[in-house]
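stuck on whats below:

***
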Amino acid sequence: MNPLKRLASQTAVYGVSSVLGRFLNYLLVPFLTYTFAPAEYGVVAEFYAYMGFLAVLLAFGLETGYFRFRAGGEWRPETVYGTVFSFLVLVNALCFLAFLLWSQPLAALLRHAEHPEYIGWCAAILALDSIGALAFARLRAEERAGYFATIKLIEIGANVGLTIFFIYVARQAHEADPGSLLGRLWDPDIGIGYVFIANLAASALKLLLLTPQFVSGLGAFDTGLFKRLIRYSLPMVVIGMAGIVNEMLDRAALKYLLPHDDATNMAQLGIYSACYKLSILMSLFIQAFRYAGEPFFFSYAKRHDAGRTYAVVLNWFVLCCVFLFLLVTLYIDVFQYFVGADYRSGLDVVPVLLLANLLLGVYVNLSIWYKLTDRTLTGAGVSLIGSAITIGLLFWWVPVHGYMGAAWAHLVCYGTMVVLSYALGRRYYPVPYDVWRVLGHIAFGIGLYLASRWLVTEQGWHWLVAGTVCMAAFLVVVGWEAWRLRRGASAIPGV
């Protein structure tokens, strides 16, 4: 199979599993936002933001290191896997015990002193997921996308099913008869915390299903390899941490930066987090592309036509992202029902967050320069600059503009990182990207969105008619563009 079609097919498999699985998972958003008040939902958003930071730290950047040294040929793949596996098991076990020991003071520090159990549950989830991520990386490297997708879907299905079981079935049984078998499974004092319990059970099931992947990794630790892995991978922690700052610091910090009392701040956090979920389609596509793209970029790097292929990939990627941007924004009157009525006051952030995610996806494409040239420290510098921008803008804009300031901080941050990464890529790993055409795709999408808003507000068109006309215009133009890209791609040997 030619390289572009192979990448597309792998992305499709990962995408189907991500879309189906995450669709099930994101069904929890309307379920939870129609069940709990914004302040309660804000607790979930807050803790998952903390977990995002810790997940990066506990992975040590070794997933990318595994891909790099597995593809290098100097060590057997089993040795690379076993070395990473042994280290991750030891470190995550120690960290889990530490969080368990200090759960009460940590809960008090986070202003959740009445629920120290949240700390223990989240720490267990982090440990299980950090170890499981390596097994998933191995499946990706071996291009076993079907096996990967199956386990992911089982995990997500279990998470969703258990969440609904506890919060709806057990809760209803408790309200009808607290002494019944099902009724005793619901504790009102835990409340929204059942989200963490369901997640923990699903993560444990996932690890059980991945057991065959762990057996072959036992007893294969190589000290020399480990030293090189750590030197290569630790800068990826900086990059990953900076990425999490850019992606999730807003949800961790909003309750401290908003100029209201704690209850109002938590409600605002819940509203913002729920509306953030409306960028799900863009996030899913980028995630699926990452799963397929990283091993593809490494395996294809030695081909003489690699640069041209990467440029074509970026063009196709941006076209898909612009389509998703228009799909959500032109039909926001439908997508708004994804969240409860109490949360829809935050819908204005959705177009800004979608554009920010689009730029993040462009950055993912451009970032191959530091991964393929082992310049991870330089890549970390780009991420740190983005983090500095995010932190500065959050402290500046959120107290003044509320959560809308957080959305604009995302957009400015990712835009800056795209410019820096492109400039550095031209120096260290030149790829003939068609910059003006890529920018044209994005500008065209923004123009159609603004045209649709103008037709609705100024000309009195129905939103469905205006949105459909603009989407049709996009598809007509992109149809021609797709033909041009396919003809250009045919010049690549084997495509």
Remarks:
- The two ends are 9 Å apart (CA to CA).
